[in-house]
């Protein structure tokens, strides 16, 4: 794709009214939706009215006066961006009088702008430059007075973009983008007239301000006032490729803008249906890890983890991998090896890994990180609704009247969706937050929750049952919906259960610590406030009662009739870019793609015919079972694609013991991650910029990933898996990922209509996409549940076995922060460390005072499983008795303290509830120091003695 700017129609589409008007623009008759601006109508007709302050990402503003037009029968010259079309209107966009007025306006802008176009980084990519040419400005009578901009120093504090106030034309586009698109309100206009200027609020520089570096202001700027440092360094791009972000589960679409083989910038694509032209700091700017010096580009092997790595050829590495797996199976049996798929890799690559294990290894020992985060979603929603995924698309939130967020922190974990959610809240929707912490959504500029229920970690089920108690006992449920769409007898049993006085808000207050009146008010709001939508995250699933909590959420939605239309539903906010896809592709030991059990004869026969082998009908091992079996001496080899289980899985000591006991650990990744410290074979992976394929986001949206540059390691990840498979004699012959998707579509009913040509033509498809839903399915369960009748499930509250006591009186919960992603392997290798250079332990002032702790000092965090040290952050965002930390930095190894307790149905680890004690410390623990030394020793590469 050659480089060109996306078409900017100047103003957003009009709100749909179903009515249209016909008018004449420059002699052409055109029919437009009622409410469309003249500017947008002219653009859609193929014309282009000059503009500076107008852009279709924000509402019209009408300040620059460059877009003046003549309207027959009207006095004056209205701004086309703020004037709606009307029936019979006759518009002229180019007359002698308009030319003169526009040149005069442009002259004033240029008179206050440095004329250094030849050396400006935006030369050739500057709207001011373009519009000066469009209005025919050839001479400026007013000389540029640099003194006007004296004292306005360039702000280079942000690691990704610069702000040069001397080039600012005060069009307010950046300010409006920060308000309307991002919802942070970090920018303002200071002073008046020629003295006016854009500035971060409170007089801060960009880095120190409330700015979240989403890039909306940079994208909106029509000059070089706000510009990416990479553009300044490299020059403007000359081609672009549309692809999908490889960070969180929102699945933002970007234009990867290139100069030759070098990526210059990632610009959010306005036609992206998940992000609608918005982005966050990670997707917009944090892609430099792809060229980081730490990246491993050559295969490596070693006989023992005590030895240094030796670089080898791809041929030798692949042959050695296949040989080792065959040796182990010959010696220990067919089920002695297994593998882990990646939620960061594409659907096609994930599908191939589970196929390698089932067809090549001959067992079902396959698991994925999706199980350690959202497997309760799959179990709970399949049980109650019949499908293992969320019910809505992201646009649906704009139709919600009440939004319940439980166990999720969207502004940090899913920031682009959070911006849309905040926009809906500013429009008047009401918010309920159920979370132990006071997350930003509870109270931030222009957004405040109606109710915050700061429950004690581990009491989700009790809280949701109390909400149900109020809804049932006050008869706020939707009886007609339940009788029509659900099993009434099951509802009656459930209603009797939740109505018991022992489950009232008053009765559960000692468990949850939440005021009963707040619980009752929240329940009434959810049940009676109109369209009510529930969004949840890992604070729901990563508990010993994760599956119960998901079913309790589904019970609430069914009881109130909040399923099957826009603005309602049950919506898991998935963590990684392809967590949904990894689940869809059959990454669990008990399921093939499409969530069909391996014991089902018809399903297994379908795969056996396609793959030409007999398949094991017995479910395989999950990750913790593999580790247990390894320490027992019966599981000896593992293939790990794009997953760092040593840092991400619970009880680090147990993971290390399991890996140490294996004879062949193969890691396929970008960097020598923590798990690779215990590996014997390292196969260098490729980034999302270097491959073709698809990702499936949290709203079931399947989107294309397109190769932007050649793989620096020589192969895309799917090609590496195919090399291993063929070395094991499987004879795969895929030439392109589109052929893999054809196989997925043939074997997976929900993907039957997913093909690359359709994705290219339509942008994306939401599964199920098949003959029954040829255009995909944005909203699930419209006329009925997939399983038939919705199933109410009684969810008893069973306290976790992880108990506080005199030795461990505090409860630790964990989460993410905006600037980093998962274990930080990618974001720590970018400038995002400017915002979060280390993990900190949040602790309430009263708990800190009781322990003699001060802000910023080292503290020891100790549990029954282990201990680590990190610096304290004293804050009232956490309640007394609760502490919180992130897990982005391996120096902390937060999971060394988390336990082996897990969800009763899926083994999803209980990351969110760990009994701990916090005490003063002098610095890193002995274990941390020994771990750092072990990691350094393990990562040695003996380049001089590469294997032959």
TrEMBL record:
Its EC number is 1.17.1.9. Keywords: 2Fe-2S, 4Fe-4S, Iron, Iron-sulfur, Metal-binding, Oxidoreductase, Repeat. PROSITE patterns: 2FE2S_FER_2, 4FE4S_FER_1, 4FE4S_FER_2, 4FE4S_HC3, 4FE4S_MOW_BIS_MGD. InterPro entries: 2Fe-2S_ferredoxin-like_sf (IPR036010), 2Fe-2S_ferredoxin-type (IPR001041), 4Fe4S_Fe-S-bd (IPR017896), 4Fe4S_Fe_S_CS (IPR017900), Asp_de-COase-like_dom_sf (IPR009010), Formate_Dh-H_N (IPR041924), Formate_DH_asu (IPR006478), MoPterin_dinucl-bd_dom (IPR006657). Pfam families: Fer2_4, Fer4_7, Molybdop_Fe4S4, Molybdopterin, Molydop_binding, NADH-G_4Fe-4S_3. Residues 159-190, 202-231 form the 4Fe-4S ferredoxin-type domain. Residues 238-294 form the 4Fe-4S Mo/W bis-MGD-type domain. Residues 97-136 form the 4Fe-4S His(Cys)3-ligated-type domain. In the C-terminal section; belongs to the prokaryotic molybdopterin-containing oxidoreductase family. Belongs to the complex I 75 kDa subunit family. PANTHER family: FORMATE DEHYDROGENASE H, RESPIRATORY NITRATE REDUCTASE. This is Formate dehydrogenase subunit alpha. It comes from Sphingobium agri.
